[in-house]
Amino acid sequence: MKHPRIFKITDEASTEKMIQQASELLRHGGVVVCATDTGYLLGVDGLNTKAIEKVYLIKGRSFNKPIHLVVSDIKMAKKLAYMDHHAERIFEQFFPGPLTVILKKKPVVPNLLAGGLESVGLRIPRNEFLLRLVKAADTPVTATSANRSGHATPYTVEQVLTELDAAAEFVDLLIDQGATQHASPSTILDMTRTPPRILREGPITANMLRDYRKENEPV
User: Fold this and answer.
1) Domain spanning 5-215: CATH 3.90.870.10
2) CB-based contact 105:118 (threshold 8 Å)
């Protein structure tokens, strides 16, 4: 089995070099694997339909299952989704962090990525390298786990190679950042519903979200 190029980040010089190489790859439809705060992602330009199709094929994922996006900041998020003041406050309180917020998508988000839905999941992980990469590429990056569909979420490069198996050969660059901060997937909060609903609980618990909401309820 052919392995992808693996590059280990050791210092600021290697970080900057990788950001330049990886952002260039993303802009040209390439596939990059790197860490978030909750696992390793299979990353492509989230607005490039051909690149998104690669992700579905590498994972063996059904095209009716949506893929979430990493954004560098709330400004980028607002270009992709409609955001009211409640969503803005969630972003300000919990990002960067291990949370995915589902919002109504804007037309710029490809239908392929949304899996036929009118919504999109957005993340700002607590991972400085990834946020710098997204900013340098100037495009959101797919946030789906670097695994075959139905396999375990990888939290190290070794696990990425195991969970992707032969499909790893279609990755252009794999960036080794060691083990991720959390060994569990992000919490998913669906804000297209009233009241918002937690679809998956992760490091940010239901109690944390509930307590924040109580503190900020209008009098």
Assistant:
1) yes
2) yes
Rg (CA), the chain: 17
Cβ contacts of residue 40 below 8 Å, gap of 6+? Answer: 33, 34, 145, 146, 154, 155, 156, 157, 159, 160, 180
What would the pLDDT profile of 38-88 be if each residue is shown by its tens digit? Answer: 999 999 999 999 999 999 999 999 999 999 999 999 999 999 999 999 999
Listed by start position, the domains of the chain span: 5-215
Report pLDDT digits (tens) over 93-146: 999 999 999 999 999 999 999 999 999 999 999 999 999 999 999 999 999 999
Q: What is the dihedral of CA 101, 102, 104, 109, to 10 degrees?
A: 90
Rounded to 5°, the CA angle 170-174-176 comes to: 155
Burial class, 214, CB count within 10 angstroms (exposed 0-12 / middle 13-18 / buried 19+): exposed
List the structure tokens of 206.
């239901």
pLDDT band at 218 (very low <50, low <70, confident <90, very high): very low
Q: What residues form DSSP beta bridges with 173? A: 5, 32
- CA distance to 2, 38, 45, 138, 218, per residue, from 25 (Å): 19, 23, 9, 12, 46
